[in-house]
Predict the structure.
Amino acid sequence: MTALDPDSVVDRASFFRFAEALVAERVSAEELERRHPQRYCLGGAEDWQNSTISSYLECALAGAGAQADWGTSSTGPTWRDLAVFLWLGKIYE
């Protein structure tokens, strides 16, 4: 599993690794988008669909809401659920 696989998140430490990898990937994507704006005018680099915080959060919420089983554990959301939420902000359109 890669650092950007939400299924690899099982605890606090792996969640932080996931979030750090997501940040690093977004930084890389932003640099690619700056260098090649025409290439990424319809979709972001590194498969990032949402480049603003508002669109990122909107899509994370929409994606989580569309999944009937997201965050439904009897003990509340898991570390994996939180990672999936962040992941959805990246990929959900």
